[in-house]
Amino acid sequence: MHIHDLITDSASLANLCHRLSQSAYITVDTEFMRENSYWPELCLIQIADDNEAAAIDPKAPDLDLGPLLDLLVDNEDVLKVFHAGGQDIEIIYNMTGRTPHPLFDTQVAAMALGLGEQIGYSNLVETYLGIAVDKGARFTDWSRRPLDARQIDYAIGDVTHLAAIFPKMLDKLRKTGRGAWLDQEMERIADTENYRNDPELAWQRVRIQGRKPEVLGRLKALARWREIEAQNKDLPRGRIVKDETLADLALSPPRKQADLAKVRGLSAGWAGNEIGARLIAALDGAKPLSAAEMPARDDKKPGLGKDGALVADLLKLLLKIRARDIDVAPKLLARSDELEALAAGQRDGLPILQGWRFEQFGRDALALVEGRLGFAVKNGKLKMTRADEQ
């Protein structure tokens, strides 16, 4: 494989992207910093196919990233391969308002191949290539220039290894007939809604005691205010106000701005400055959370009941057994909320009752709920047993 020098000029990048656009797939990775900012600071982009690989410096003066972004989000003929690509995809979404498509995530694919729910990149490389990844540059400051040769080699290794791993994974998926299992998961990862930081929904990230609509309405208003402040100032949310302080303010709102001086976690200066005034304005404009927005209770889903909760527990046991038998990550087969819905009597719209999930798990799950399937211990192992076998 040909490894290019660090690309810093527009002509070289355009030529690289033209060649890569002829490939069936490319592997993509990024290096970024976000410890001190709201928006991730893109510091390096690595890209490869089975013939060549390069690192691209997005900080290079006058570098036109247009051809690269076109390749990533406009070219539907080239598959984009990531490993645990959520944050890489978020960066591309922030730059373009779109996500790479079509895409393939090797961490998700590993779930269908019995490698666990969140296999790390280093373990994936060792499993497929027998190579121990040099982790020495992991915690480097990627924003500093110049980058040294070790840093660049480390970064490019992420995509060259991935370019060697992907065909092996694809071959195994084809042989096991599990490639189609992943189509829905990959489309879900590519959904732009996953990467849109909507201030109206920011309150859902904050933990708070209590379920009063008035309290949650204040939390929604405060979280929206903080999200906008963080975006405008390009600072992490916690640098504006920490979650626990936001929750305290929602539970015990100050009556006037001067009272902010007494709030633990806020600077005394907020009692008289502009940001404090905007906080109070957000509180003053808060409305009780609507019934449609109220979160479901964590303890019991509506309609589940005590017996239903026990049935859900049996379904979770069945899921563990089935996942073990077919050597797949349980999370790929079913989610807990789907099992609870099935136990509560829901049948429509559940992924586990559709397509390959029904064939691999849903049929047995339905049989368990309807009394046609049970459990037995055979040779020291827990097995599923049908009613006519008992």
Keywords summarizing the entry:
single chain; 390 residues; alpha/beta; two-stranded antiparallel ribbon; 15 helices; 45% helix
Strand-helix topology:
Elements: E1 2-3, H1 10-20, E2 25-33, E3 41-48, E4 52-56, H2 66-73, E5 79-82, H3 86-96, E6 103-105, H4 106-112, H5 121-129, H6 149-176, H7 183-190, H8 213-233, H9 237-240, H10 243-251, H11 274-284, H12 305-326, H13 330-333, H14 336-343, H15 355-369, E7 373-378, E8 381-386
Parallel strand pairs: 1-4, 2-5, 5-6
Antiparallel strand pairs: 2-3, 3-4, 7-8
Helix pairs in contact: 1-2, 4-6, 5-6, 8-10, 8-11, 12-14, 12-15
- The topology string of helices and strands comes to EHEEEHEHEHHHHHHHHHHHHEE
Mean pLDDT across the residues is 93
| Oligomeric organization of the protein chains | single chain
Total beta strands: 8
How does the major sheet shape up? 6 strands, mixed
Radius of gyration: 25 Å
Spatial order of the strands forming the largest sheet: 1-4-3-2-5-6
Shape: flat
What would you call the structural class? Answer: alpha/beta
Q: Determine the fraction of residues in helical runs and give it as a percent range.
A: 40-55%
Distance between termini?
A: 59 Å
Low-pLDDT ranges: none
Strand content: 5-15%
Counting DSSP H or I runs of 4 or more residues, the number of helices is 15
Structure description:
- It is built from 15 helices and eight strands.
- It has 390 residues and is of the alpha/beta class.
- It has a six-stranded mixed sheet, sandwiched between helices. A two-stranded antiparallel sheet has the order 7-8.
- Helix 3 links the parallel strand 5 and strand 6 (103-105).
- The chain is flat.
- The protein starts with a strand and ends with a strand.
